[in-house]
From TrEMBL:
This is Crystaline entomocidal protoxin. It holds the Pfam family Endotoxin_C. Belongs to the delta endotoxin family. Keywords: Sporulation, Toxin, Virulence. InterPro entries: Galactose-bd-like_sf, Pest_crys, Pest_crys_dom-III, Pest_crys_dom_I, Pest_crys_N_sf, Pest_cryst_cen_dom_sf, Pest_cryst_dom_II. Residues 81-289, 298-492, 502-634 form the Pesticidal crystal protein domain. Signal peptide: none annotated. One of its GO terms (molecular function) is signaling receptor binding. SUPFAM superfamilies: delta-Endotoxin (insectocide), middle domain, delta-Endotoxin (insectocide), N-terminal domain, Galactose-binding domain-like. One of its GO terms (biological process) is sporulation resulting in formation of a cellular spore.
Length: 660
């Protein structure tokens, strides 16, 4: 890493007039008001931090595994070209929630209920739980009837009886969902405890409605297809808003719990686990609009989630102020970065302890090879040694383990990390060693996120990659807390456009932001947003693997009329009508789900050669909040492109025959 240009993470916005990327770790002064914490944690279904001796890190039926697996299932099926020629997306989701191995039981749904009960330290009434499980069992049976009817119709699509049967069962399942979602899965006073179940059931309902939009006319209910499209849009907004509202309500309850009994790991566990089981799922809802997304989709999540704090149980690591812990152990909103390596600083002044006292993250922005840095407690002195770890190109860290000194009497003894091992997605490992032969006891801890399937986590089935590491000292240089940030594996650090799919690139995957700032996401976008006003500029590098004609759409929210300039290299202008108004009256907050719309740039684009193209987006008004930029192939697939090139060669050959 010594060869890296040592640019600070926030230099990229040095000219910003309202940058929110000032170093959050200097925002709050170090405080002396600390306390013993981490009394009794009870998150056995999910541990980003767990003792290495635990062989059952996470039950294969665990709630978080359900969220990870469902997301992986949908993202995988999204990329299948013939996804519109069957109900694979709906069936894939249903089979994941009711696997054959459950033998008719409701284990997956019960895991979702059990886990949120532990996170909130509350219990569902037995009657509410039983009613919800019974209705889920009924939904499963109805979906099975619809599946059989669909299979029968698919074999003989002109049979009027088969058409009527599949259309009838479709309407039965839809009606059942509408009733259950409005009552049983959102029971009053139990909205938070039922939220993971609600989100998964909502996902199934919207996937069902998507099938009605695709097949309604072929089932002989053409007017109903329009009706079900309206229903799809209606319930997408209802379900997304419900999930965000009650997620935030639960988060507020966690803040109240922290004020009474500070435990940042408990607060963070709620946010992390509910992100995976609820917010990640609803981030996909807008893509279910089969009339807007007529091709396979390549999409990604850019949100970050955080591990438990290593050593939070040590007196002096945690502070009593939640905001100060947030500043110490998480990052403020930022453009997406890729972790490229570390400098580690080992404290050597204590005779019998060698441990990690400070570090520097090295990272780059998407589509940009320049290396930036951000440091924690890395003052270099005569009693410290420095070691460097470089992450190879096209590899990422998907899990790690640490050895750290245990907290024993006297409490003045160090508890820092003595050794770390990183597992890479290229099946290699990297190691930091402060000492390989510690004199005093150490504990081994795994940090990992569940894989995309039920197999043990490896470089072939990882779901998340390490994106950042923080550390904080509030009680001298012997009491250090460490956290690790994780990003979903769907993130493409090349911004590669698929020539056969609609490619969504989140705005936060730009490589520079002039004057504008990154705003915390509202919970339903799968990541943060870029906020811009007049003359603010966002630069994004996009990779085209081949020449391509394409169109561009932008998903955004704004409360005023305006427009965006798009430079690449010619100037295009797209008008952005306000999204928060209904009949001319202010109705939605700009962060509401219903305030986000998709607008198409009224121009065609062409990538003439393979390689990177830079897009600069400039705001002509503000504020406008940009979620994603979509690249839609303009009726050109890879096969059509190659065929067109062969046809052109043939034409040229024929012309040569007549001119020579």
């Amino acid at each position: 890493m010594n060869s890296y240009e040592n640019k600070n993470e926030y230099e990229i916005l040095n000219d910003s007039k309202k940058s929110n990327m000032s170093n959050p770790y200097l925002r709050y002064p170090l405080a002396n008001d600390s306390l013993a914490s981490m009394q009794n944690t009870n998150y056995k279904d999910w541990l980003t931090m767990c003792d290495r001796t635990d062989t059952d890190v996470l039950s294969s039926r665990g709630a978080v595994s359900t969220g990870v697996g469902m997301l992986s299932t949908i993202l995988s099926l999204f990329g299948i070209p013939l996804i519109g020629e069957g109900i694979d997306l709906l069936l894939g989701a249903a089979d994941f929630l009711w696997p054959e191995s459950d033998g008719g039981h409701q284990y997956t749904w019960e895991d979702l209920m059990n886990h949120i009960e532990e996170l909130m330290d509350e219990r569902l009434e037995t009657e509410k739980r039983t009613t919800a499980l019974d209705d889920l069992r009924g939904l499963k049976a109805l979906l099975g009837l619809f599946r059989d009817a669909f299979d029968s119709w698919e074999k003989n699509q002109n049979d009027p009886i088969a058409k009527n049967r599949v259309g009838g069962y479709f309407e039965d399942v839809h009606t059942h969902f509408v009733k259950d979602m409005a009552s049983i899965f959102s029971a009053t006073n139990y909205e938070v405890l039922l939220l993971p179940v609600y989100a998964q059931a909502a996902n199934l309902h919207l996937l069902l409605l998507r099938e009605g939009v695709i097949y309604g006319s072929r089932w002989g209910i053409a007017p109903a297809a329009d009706f079900y499209h309206d229903q799809l849009l209606k319930y997408t907004a209802i379900y997304a808003n419900h999930c965000v509202t009650w997620y935030n309500n639960g988060l507020a309850q966690q803040k109240e719990l922290f004020a009474k009994s500070p435990n940042w790991n408990r607060f963070n566990a709620y946010r992390r686990d509910m992100t995976i089981t609820v917010l990640d799922i609803i981030a996909l809802f807008p893509t279910y609009d089969a009339r807007l997304y007529t091709k396979p989709i390549k999409t990604e999540l850019t949100r970050e989630i955080y591990s438990d704090v290593l050593n939070l149980d040590v007196y002096g690591v945690q502070q009593t102020d939640l905001n100060k812990n947030e500043a110490a152990f998480t990052r403020s909103p930022h453009l997406v970065t890729r972790l490229r390596g570390f400098d580690f600083y080992t404290r050597t002044k204590y005779a019998y302890w060698r441990y990690l006292a400070g570090h520097t993250n090295y990272f780059s922005f998407t589509g940009n090879g320049t290396i930036y840095s951000s440091s924690f407690n890395n003052w270099y002195d005569t009693d410290m040694t420095k070691s460097t770890i470089n992450i190879p190109d096209y590899a990422n860290i998907y899990k790690l383990w640490t050895k750290s000194y245990t907290n024993i009497s006297p409490y003045t003894d160090p508890v820092g990390i003595s050794q770390m091992q990183f597992s890479l997605t290229n099946n290699q490992q990297l190691t930091y060693t402060g000492t390989s032969a510690p004199k005093y006891p150490v504990r081994e801890t795994f940090f990992e996120i569940p894989p995309t399937d039920e197999k043990p986590l490896t470089y072939e089935n990882y779901s998340h990659i390490l994106s950042y590491m923080t550390s904080a000292q509030h009680f001298g240089d012997k009491k250090i807390g460490y956290t690790f940030a994780w990003m979903h594996e769907s993130v493409d650090f090349d911004n590669r456009v698929d020539p056969d799919k609609i490619t969504q690139i989140p705005a936060v995957k730009g490589d520079y932001l002039q004057y504008g700032y990154v705003k915390q996401g509202p919970g339903h976008t799968g990541g943060d947003l870029v906020s811009m006003i007049r003359t603010d500029r966002l630069g994004i590098n996009v990779y085209f693997p081949q020449p391509l004609d394409y169109r561009i759409r932008i998903r955004y929210s704004t409360s005023s009329n305006g427009y965006l300039y798009i430079y690449s290299p010619n100037t295009k202008i797209v008008y952005l009508p306000p999204t928060t108004l209904v009949d001319g009256q202010p109705t939605f907050d700009p962060m509401d789900f219903s305030a986000f719309r998709v607008v198409e740039v009224p121009a065609s684009f062409r990538a003439s050669v393979a390689g990177y193209t830079n897009f600069t987006i400039e705001a002509g008004f503000g504020p406008v909040y940009i979620d994603k930029i979509e690249f839609i192939p303009d009726n050109t697939t890879t096969l059509e492109y190659e065929g067109g090139r062969d046809l052109e060669k043939t034409k040229n050959a024929v012309n040569d025959l007549f001119t020579n």
